[in-house]
Design a protein that fits this description.
This protein has helices at 2-26, 159-164, 189-195, 209-212, 225-231, 255-266, 322-327, 346-358; strands at residues 52-53, 60-61, 66-68, 80-86, 109-119, 124-136, 139-147, 154-156, 166-173, 179-186, 197-198, 201-202, 215-218, 221-224. By secondary structure, it is an alpha+beta fold. The protein is globular, with a radius of gyration of 25 Å. 30% of the residues are buried. Keywords: Signal.
Length: 364
């Protein structure tokens, strides 16, 4: 009788074990895959790419859609940004130079979402636009997506809408508590090209090793962003001695490095050789601004604005410096950057003012 009982228990355990294994094997694990056909993109809806899981507005990336953040961010009327990189299987980007965008393979998509989390009334979060840059065999193309008010979808802007651009009236609160109302500018294709043009070809701006050579807090913890791209199979390798930009908001860093980082991300893409403003006297890439003359210090203004503004940078005197005047202006004929902002970036102007005031050299 005891043997029969033990045999029964043994069979029961075997049966239970089999049932348990069967249950485990039947559990479906989420394995989302990006939908990308290079001959069919850009799609008419952002959701079609399947870059994000769950509610689209949460911008929760699926596997292999990698978030990134440059050391300093381009100012766009105080909009916040969430940026991602996606690449097809079995291809990798390569390193060219500290101050040159990574050399991405065909099929790469750079994803940049613009949003505010203090929209009034109520400090609500609202995504306004998502910009894609897609690398095709012929080069980079732009795809602009506008979000609906319900925040459930973003539609591709095409035809005359993308040719002329548009504006969206918003009211938001700044970190200092100021309430700002402005007509946020949705760029046209021409405006995108104006800033992203180099050698008459569209190129990315922020994805340079000098801007990505810092830590990002991924779901699994902090990691160097370039190393993350290597680990994900997105980047071949990178040198250990990259001369990097910094977060211009970081007051623990030297004032001149902070300003040079700010000018690099906000101004250098136009003020470089073979770019939109290459006819101007200044060159504002981080790698060049160790030379103060490249930043315009003591350099005579190359356009008539006001007799009191004789030099691009007048050491010790922001009010007699063209650069300070332009960054402080909202007039379309005078402001810089010309595109991407409708209001003054107070913190950027203050940083420039501090730096100019710290200069004590005499101009010849």
């Amino acid at each position: 009788m005891r043997k029969i009982y033990l045999l029964f228990v043994f069979c029961f355990l075997i049966l239970f074990s089999c049932k348990s294994d069967e249950h485990i094997d039947s559990v479906e694990t989420e394995s989302p895959v990006v939908n990308f056909n290079i001959d069919a993109v850009p799609y008419s809806k952002l959701s079609t790419y399947a870059f994000f899981k769950g509610d689209l507005k949460n911008l929760d990336p699926v596997a292999k859609v990698i978030p990134y953040e440059p050391a300093s961010s381009l100012f766009t009327d105080y909009a916040l940004k969430k940026r991602f990189i996606w690449m097809p299987n079995d291809v990798k980007a390569s390193y060219d130079a500290d101050d040159k965008s990574l050399n991405f393979p065909v099929g790469t998509v750079l994803i940049k979402n613009f949003y505010y989390n203090t929209i009034q009334p109520g400090n609500t979060t609202k995504i306004l636009e998502t910009r894609l840059m897609i690398k095709k065999s012929s080069g980079w193309i732009f795809a602009e997506y506008l979000w609906n008010d319900a925040q459930i979808e973003a539609e591709l802007v095409t035809g005359t809408d993308f040719t002329s651009g548009s504006s969206k009236n918003i009211t938001f609160k700044k970190e200092n508590g100021d309430i700002i109302t402005t007509d946020y500018r949705i760029p046209s294709e021409t405006e995108c090209y104006a800033c992203h043009k180099l050698d008459n070809k569209p190129v990315p701006i922020g994805v340079k090793p000098q801007n990505l050579n810092g830590s990002y807090n991924y779901p699994n913890g902090l990691k160097n962003q370039l190393q993350k791209l290597v680990d994900e199979g997105y980047l071949q390798s990178y040198p250990s001695n990259i001369v990097s930009t910094v977060n211009y908001k970081d007051t623990s860093k030297p004032l001149d490095i902070r300003l040079r980082s700010y000018l690099d991300i906000n101004c250098a893409h136009c003020h470089q050789d073979n770019a939109r403003c290459d006819y101007r006297a200044i060159r504002l890439s981080f790698s060049q601004t160790t030379n103060l003359a490249k930043m315009g210090v003591c350099i005579l203004a190359d356009e008539p604005i006001d007799p009191s503004l004789e030099r691009i940078i007048t050491p010790g005197n922001p009010n007699k410096s063209v650069m300070h005047f332009r960054l402080s202006s909202v007039n379309e004929n005078n402001r810089m950057p010309l595109l991407g902002r409708t209001i003054v970036h107070d913190e950027g102007v203050d940083l420039l003012k501090q730096w100019i005031s710290s200069l004590n050299q005499n101009c010849p």
